[in-house]
Design goal:
476 residues, mainly beta, Immunoglobulin-like, six-stranded mixed β-sheet, 7 helices
Length: 476
């Protein structure tokens, strides 16, 4: 292919190329641009030939599969790009990442012709927020295997690793894929069978961008050996009194208590945690001026009204995790998921044995004529029924992964539910397992040894009765 070009045009093209590099690829959406500028001086292919060393040739050989049957991607795409290639599917090693973390994607691409055009791959990681766009254009197999070298029926396993750029804001992002030539983007032939954006970009999968900060970490305190906890929602035991509350939670998108709209408040919610060798205890305080709950049957759709939710994945393997919910009327929902959002009917058919719950309401249930203050949920979760938990808990136990949520809906059925999260997932999925908080276990502090002389000088402070709100626990 021979290209005729004037000196003036060449100068302008080179200047544009240098400007492109100087800006470090800032928001240049036209992926072919840099290649056009680079190839204006070439008297060969649109994308230059690649010379391979012996080790590189071996890598290319290992990356070419015998046929499409050998490709077994975990995510099936089946996007046909004109008469050039078919993207069979992809694998991705994670569903969420923080800025500067590395993501690995494997593409399985089949050639549909013996005389392919001079195509190149473009990949875009794109979110809805500002600065959430990343250009990941590349040549397959680390730049060693241009698509034009493939023959009909050959499949390349193209492994790409990239680092999420440091300026990414938390939120959901989508990964797009496509092909382009010097004439523009290659068209999707089977548009009605694949998900795309209408601009010849095939939507591959979603990726949650987590905040740069480390995961939320909370502490469970050991129950005093001389104390028996009564599950009544009142938290009157000394172990509960001395345990520390978490900060008030954020909303699921990571915003603080008050939105830009001053009339929209994130429901004030916080939690405490206790542990003993055979169980985990959780208390959740929900500030609420109208406490209500209508459902009465276990495993109802409790998320459709006011409720608190606990997700447990103690070993963090994202398998066999639990979802436990309790309404202000102490109606419970318990489910065990085999993997991320596995079949709901199967998951909710499981019932946790030995799970004890209670709700204490500072106000009145289902009475909109008065102003309530809050309700408190207390629960005891047995280790024997918790997948991934050790048989015995101790202060040396590895941290658990868990998350807590709350739905509040004072204007039901009008308006919308409001939500709060212990560890915000930053997307609309409470099952975002990578966003779970870490729960560490702390032993009871040892009592200091007091000498006899010091004990004689100790004077107990005067005690007085504190006012206790008149409220009744809801029977479990």
């Amino acid at each position: 292919m021979s290209v005729a070009i004037s000196p003036l045009s060449l100068t302008r093209s080179l200047a544009l190329s240098l400007r492109f590099l100087d800006q470090k690829c800032k928001l240049l959406r036209s992926a072919p641009f840099v290649f056009v500028c680079s190839c204006l001086c070439l008297n060969a292919c649109y994308f230059p030939e690649v010379s391979l060393s012996e080790s590189e040739a071996r890598l290319v050989e290992q990356s070419i599969l015998r046929d499409a049957d050998e490709a077994k991607p975990s995510i099936i795409i089946n996007a046909i790009m004109e008469d050039q290639a078919r993207l069979i599917g992809i694998d991705i090693d994670r569903k969420s990442a923080r800025p500067n973390e590395v993501v690995k994607v494997t593409y399985y691409i089949e050639s549909l012709t013996d005389t392919p055009e001079d195509c190149e791959i473009f990949v875009h990681l794109q979110g809805k927020r500002a600065r959430m766009w990343q250009n990941l254009d590349h040549t397959p197999v680390k730049g060693l295997l241009p698509l034009r070298t493939l023959k009909r029926g050959q499949v390349v396993r193209d492994v790409q690793t990239f680092r999420v750029k440091s300026t990414y804001a938390p939120g959901g992002a989508k990964l797009y894929w496509g092909l382009f030539t010097k004439s523009g983007r290659v068209k999707i032939k089977n548009r009605g069978e694949v998900t795309h954006d209408g601009k010849e970009r095939v939507e591959l999968t979603s990726l949650t961008i987590l905040p740069r900060r480390p995961p939320v970490t909370v502490t469970a305190y050991e129950v005093s050996s001389s104390e028996i906890l009564k599950i009544d929602g009142q938290l009157t035991e000394n172990s509960w009194r001395t345990a520390k509350w978490t900060p008030f939670w954020l909303d699921p998108l990571g915003r603080y208590r008050r939105h830009k709209n001053k009339n929209t408040l994130i429901p004030q919610t916080r939690a405490k945690f206790l542990w003993r060798s055979d169980a985990l205890f959780i208390a959740i305080e929900a500030i609420d001026h109208h406490v209500w709950a209508k459902l009465t049957e276990r495993d109802s759709n409790t998320w459709e009204e006011e409720v608190v939710e606990v997700f447990l994945d103690p070993d963090g393997d994202k398998r066999q995790y639990l979802e436990l919910q309790v309404t202000p009327a102490n109606v419970v929902f318990d489910a065990k998921f085999a993997y991320h959002r596995s079949d709901l009917k199967t998951a909710r058919a499981w019932n946790m044995k030995g799970w004890r719950t209670a709700v204490y309401i500072d106000g009145t249930l289902n009475d909109s004529s008065d102003r309530d203050r809050k309700y408190t949920v207390e629960m005891m979760i047995p280790l024997s029924e918790t997948p991934g938990a050790p048989s015995v808990l101790s202060a040396e136990s590895s941290p658990w992964r868990l998350n807590l949520f709350r739905f509040d809906w004072n204007q039901a059925p009008q308006g919308r539910q409001k939500a709060a999260a212990l560890s915000p997932p930053y997307i609309g999925d409470f099952h975002a397992l990578d966003a779970f908080a870490k729960l560490r276990f702390k032993a009871q502090p040892k009592k200091p040894v007091v000498k006899q002389r010091e004990r004689l000088q100790t004077v107990s402070p005067p005690t007085s009765k504190s006012s206790v709100p008149v409220a009744k626990p809801v029977a479990p």
